[in-house]
Amino acid sequence: MIKGHCCGGYLTVYMTITLGVILTLSLTMIEGARRSAMRMEAELVTDTAMRSLLAEYNRELMRQYNIFAIDSSYGSSVSGTGRASEHFKEYMEKNYERDVPMPWLDNRDLIGAYPESALVVAATYLTDDSGRIFRECAVDAVRDDLGLAIAGEVVALATSAEIRAADSMDVAADMGQQASEVGETADSERRSRESTRASEEWNYELACREAAANGEPPPAAPELTDVPEEYRSPVSSVAETVNTGILGLLTDDVENLSRRQLDLNGIVSGRAAAGNINTGTILYEPDEKGPAEEALDKALFGEYLMRYMGRYGDVCEDDAMWYQIEYLIAGKSADAENLNSVALKIVAIRAGMDMLYLESDSAKKAEAASAATLICTACMIEWMIPVLTHVLLLAWALLEARYDTSTLLSGGKIPFMKTSADWHCDLQSVIEGRAAGRGGDSGTGLSYTDYLRIFLFMTDTADLTMRAMDMIEADIRLSRGNSLFRMDACMEMIECSAVLESPFGSRITIKRKLKY
What we know:
Helices cover 55% and strands 7% of the residues. It is of the alpha+beta class. Among the domains are: 153 residues, no CATH class; 199 residues, no CATH class. A hairpin with a 5-residue loop joins strand 3 and strand 4.
């Protein structure tokens, strides 16, 4: 019997099924790899394009003030994200160009992606949050260079009990008020005594007439009321001496002082007041900081301003204004007005400091009390001796403060708290209204720039920031190609969105934020 051999088709069917599964898996993995590669490429190209866009920072802003920001107007009168979006898309397209032609892939690689759209959808401007963005950039620009030591010293001085006490005083106003009180009291007492004396003289005259009519001898002359000397204020010329002619302390030739002015309506503070200012659309969330950190940051901001802006005694003739730091403190439109305001502010703060010293010097207080006693006794207002003593001390402090201001503005230094060895004016100068002359350098203490640092710290943060942006905007406009420069057109952070498509049917949306 012959047995037959039967061959089955199991292997062929098995291989067919297996190869189908393997092929499906392979193609799925290839497609997944292609999609992953497309996304990775999209992210890399988007980041590269955004960094290329950030590299278009305004060169003058960086050169003069060490601030990095994109001028979204690119020298034109139109600002916003429009032109930045055009540049961003251009960078995206350039990064997707291929040098190796592949005709069968429409000149593209195996990914085949291309940017369908690329936009800058949001941004933060330097002026956002009342200029906080700019202020933080400025602090970052100096933090590493300066360290925290000098900023800590400024904070310690500006928040010291002595400065707070001196700043709370208004020596000139107190002196004027109390001096008027003494003068009015003296005049009132003199008028009262004159009236009483006139009445006594009239009554005596009537008595003499009556005696004469009766044939009697005239009565004995009564003891008439004494009339005091006419009161002459010992400090009448002090306030005028201190508060006028301050700029004459600065130089023998006042004509050499800057006469430059700034149109405040045409710069960022004027536009902000009118509500005509760009505002970023990225939600800004500042870091939570305690009072100590906020104070330190403000001191660092002041150091940034001192480093990059001019002031009296250290001006740059190419700047829009010569006395820029003085503008930050006073906020006036003219250099001369700002300098005068700062000089008066120094007089006021030094008068307070000098008054604190006088209150602790028993010898000078006794000298003032002795002079007040002589004057009040002669004017018969002995009860006003304590008030006039205080008036003399206030006037003495004011006159010494003028000497201090002269010293500071001439480049010298004045001790923070004085001793008897550092005092220059005598009481006779106060009574006669004589100035102490131009100041000389004591060699120790604080300088004019130190007081500017203190005043910067004491200036309202919002006002200080806005005025600083005024100065920067005005200066940058003087440089070539930046006549239309606006701080509120400068983007510090951008948010970009790109949509990338592939002829293979893939579509990817990328969103990124990037800042300096």
